[in-house]
Design a protein that fits this description.
- The complex is a heterodimer of chains A (90) and B (247).
- With 90 residues, chain A is of the alpha+beta class.
- Chain A contains two helices and five strands; from the N terminus they run ββααβββ.
- Chain B is α/β, with parallel strands linked by helices.
- Chain B is globular, with a radius of gyration of 17 Å.
- Chain B has seven helices and eight strands; from the N terminus they run βαβαβαβαββαααββ.
- Chain B: This is ThiF family adenylyltransferase.
Chain lengths: 90, 247
């Protein structure tokens, strides 16, 4: 199953886990699986229309999904998905 | 490094280690901007200060400490609250070659600084830190991806938790502040770091380097794109305490 790196601000949903594995063959289905396992996390990543929020970026490996097929981007079991939100503090 | 001028916006958790790193690296001239005073509860990450500085303007305390370390260093303390007007004036007054370090804790301000640096042709390093980690990115407008290529807009206040609410590990601010200094020196020296975003989390000790692509239609760097709308500046990290610089 693809590995998902959870950013610090979202680890309260994953009981502090920095990485989780979630079944899915696209980024969107992985995010749906993430929500099933960790309720509440998806709305921090996607907006009401289901799109990735404008201050969050999702990468498959080193590739920005906006340059691929967005949430329809295919993922393999060996892939690592990184969720990278803009961090505000200073 | 044999000199260089750096404008450091915010003398808090990121600004303090960034200033130390720049000074140690041989910066010739620093300008430090903040409107806040030293608070005892922030000393774990604002490592330029001690209990004797509590209540003093941060920029004055920072300038004093830096001059003690390097007497020949030129340090300009600027106590001003940054908003659209003061920021524009400040950036317009910078000599060519100045590298800007955005160290504030205001999400909207970070983007305003980013866009202002584009307008004035200034390279910058922009960063954020919370809890165990954060991110830093070097930007030279016109050379590679900009911050808005990665993040199209600032998080809204309701989704940007307060630093006071979630905390900031002192070591995380230190690591990212020194990373900012490193990237700023590299920009000043012309090294190929522009467009690189480094994310760091001290909990899993796995730094992550991202070299985002320049995004067509990016409001931060695509001349054909509609400029990003400027929202009124919100409070620092969604605190109710009002605008701040670097708490």
């Amino acid at each position: 199953m693809p590995n998902v790196r959870i950013p610090t601000p979202l680890r309260k949903y994953t009981q502090g886990r920095e990485e989780v594995t979630v079944a899915g063959d696209t980024v969107g289905s992985v995010l749906d699986g993430l929500e099933q396992s960790y309720p509440g996390i998806k709305e921090r990543i996607c907006d009401e229309a289901g799109k990735v929020r404008r201050f969050v970026n999702v990468f498959v490996g080193e590739d920005d999904i906006r340059f691929l097929d967005n949430l329809a981007t295919a993922v393999k079991t060996s892939d690592e998905i990184s969720i990278v939100p803009a961090i505000a503090g200073g | 490094m044999t000199g260089g001028r750096f404008l450091v916006l915010g003398a808090g958790g990121l600004g303090c280690p960034a200033l130390l790193g720049l000074t140690a690296a041989g910066a010739r001239e620093l300008a430090v901007v903040d409107c806040d005073v030293v608070d005892a509860t922030n000393l774990h990450r604002q490592v330029l200060y001690d209990l004797g500085d509590v209540g003093a303007p941060k920029v004055e305390a920072a300038a004093r400490r830096l001059r003690e370390r390097v007497p020949q260093l030129r340090v300009e303390p600027i106590s001003v609250r940054l908003d659209e007007r003061t920021l524009s004036s400040l950036l317009a007054a910078q000599p060519a070659g100045t590298v800007v370090l955005e160290c504030s804790d205001q999400p909207d301000l970070k983007f305003l600084v980013h866009d202002g640096c584009r307008a004035h042709g200034l390279p910058l390093v922009i960063a954020g830190v919370q809890r165990w980690g954060g991110q830093a990115m070097a930007v030279r407008h016109g050379a590679g991806a900009c911050f808005r290529c990665v993040f199209e807009e600032a998080p809204p206040a309701e989704l940007a938790p307060s630093c006071a609410a979630v905390g900031v590990l002192g070591a995380a601010a230190g690591a990212l502040g020194f990373m900012m200094a490193h990237l700023a020196v590299a920009l000043a020296e012309g090294d190929d770091v522009a467009g690189t975003l480094v994310a760091l989390d001290l909990r899993d000790l796995r730094p992550q380097q991202i070299r985002p692509r320049q995004r067509s239609g990016c409001a931060g760097c695509d001349p054909s794109a509609v400029p990003a709308p400027q929202r009124p500046l919100g409070p620092a990290c969604s605190t109710s305490a009002g605008p701040a610089c670097s708490r």
